[in-house]
Amino acid sequence: MTFVTYAYDAGLARITLADPDHGNCIHPEAVAELLEAVHRAESDRARVILLAAEGRFFSVGGDLAGFAGANDMAAYIERLANSLHRVISALQRSEAVVVCAVQGPAAGAGFPLAAAADVVVAVESARFSLGYGNVGLSVDGGSSLLVNTLGLHTTLRISLLGDSLTAQEAYEAGLVTRVVADTELSGGVDRVVTRLLSLPAGSQAATKQLVREAAGPAPEWALRREARSIRIRAGTKDAREGVTAFLDRRRPSFVHD
């Protein structure tokens, strides 16, 4: 694999976003490798999956240059959303407890990818943001499921206004489980993983299933709605202008279609 690395040892599967030069952005090849890695963790019967990233960013989100270069941006984004949603669903449905280590910004689709974990450990300087509206798109990647954790109006605030959450704010909202110093991420994650591996696997898997189903018995329905919506938005003039303006580093001039 080129964009993701995988390693397994003693019940722990480590899945690492490994494209730091491009901010671990979300594109078809990276998402395919992510899904392959999750399936490998399932084959290895991992008890804990650790999702982490190399570099300064956890993930900057979608590869907007790829969006702009697609012959049919709407179809391209819909395919990407559906592929990413398979990853999100697999992580949430996995019997393994999923731990996410966030060492920098988790933006766009990188935010709900991190939030798909059961336990999130973030450094103090980490930031969580969506920003889909800035480029004329609607949310995807399971962003609408954030309402189960953050509540209705916080989710609306970060979705509509583009506000970001600090690691401490995300902790107070219930999304982040542990906030650690920027230099202490590895130790903080190791403590969480060690604790999880010390507990009965069957009990952990059953508890995860019960709690997740209580929060939302059919997350795939929300994911399908997101994919359909983002395809519609990606076909608009506002989306084309938003993506182009972002790449040109200028303020977009939306037509409000």
UniProtKB/TrEMBL annotation:
| Pfam families named in the record | ECH_1
Which EC number(s) does UniProt give?
5.3.3.18
> Which SUPFAM superfamilies does the record cross-reference, listed alphabetically?
ClpP/crotonase
Identify the taxonomic lineage of the organism of origin.
Bacteria, Bacillati, Actinomycetota, Actinomycetes, Propionibacteriales
InterPro entries attached to this UniProt entry: ClpP/crotonase-like_dom_sf, Enoyl-CoA_hydra/iso
By what name is this protein known? Answer: 2-(1,2-epoxy-1,2-dihydrophenyl)acetyl-CoA isomerase
Q: What GO annotations for molecular function exist for this entry?
A: isomerase activity
Enzyme class comes to isomerase
Per UniProt, the keywords (alphabetical) are: Isomerase
